[in-house]
Amino acid sequence: MHTQSVESPPRPPAERRTARWAGALALCSALLLALVAVRWYPLMNVDGDIAETTHRWAVDESGVTHAFRILTDWVWDPWTMRILTAAVAGWLVWRRAARRTAVWLVAACALGTVVQQSLKAVIDRPRPVWPDPVDSAHYAAFPSGHAMTATVVCGLLLWLLHHHGVGRALWRTAVAVAVVSVAGVGLTRVWLGVHWATDVIGGWLLGALVVVLAVRVHVRWPS
Question: Residue 4: pLDDT band by 50, 70, 90 thresholds?
Fold first, then answer.
């Protein structure tokens, strides 16, 4: 008696795209992490050249440097981003009774924090050291916690807005604010001499990977 084989249903296009993005981001993140971990000379050399140039600018342009310190220490600080996340989670519970989504949002942001702190401890990359520093920071350099946290929070909030179908004006404004925040926080960390450029790139890549994986979990989570 012949038994007909049963094939699993094909994955929808959106799910396939998410899987491809996750794979690409994971590959790029792993490659950069490995190069930083082994202190690959060509990459370290580029990092050093960028750091020396931007630090020279930071010393010369004290007004810009002061503005960047305010932005990085208050507006784009990881704790500011976490407070924003908590506020959105509270709003989801209060106004939309979306407890599952609120828990998902907080858990994804917490995962990003755990990943970045774990990698900092494992890689233990020294931060730039200057005879005339314009700012200071603690803990290891790779990946940039500011860059990664901003990417995770802005990416997840953008996806929630898209998921709930907000108006075009609000969507465009949110995208602009997110892009400026994520790019801006990376620029300020390098300008202030507390991170190498690859720390910021690593934070962006890992943050984007957390967002893509979180979205995949939310989409596949049974209602």
Answer: very low
For residue 69, how many other CB atoms are within 10 A of its CB? 16
d(CA 188, CA 147): 10
Active site residue 146: yes
CA distances from 55 to 59, 61, 198 (A): 6, 10, 16
pTM for this entry: 0.92
162 is catalytic: no
Q: Catalytic residue, from 2, 138, 195, 218: name it.
A: 195
For residue 3, pLDDT beyond 80: no
Domains of the chain, by residue range, sit at 18-220
Cβ–Cβ < 8 Å for 153, 84:
yes
Cα 3 versus chain centre, distance = 49
Catalytic residue among 55, 138, 146, 162: 146
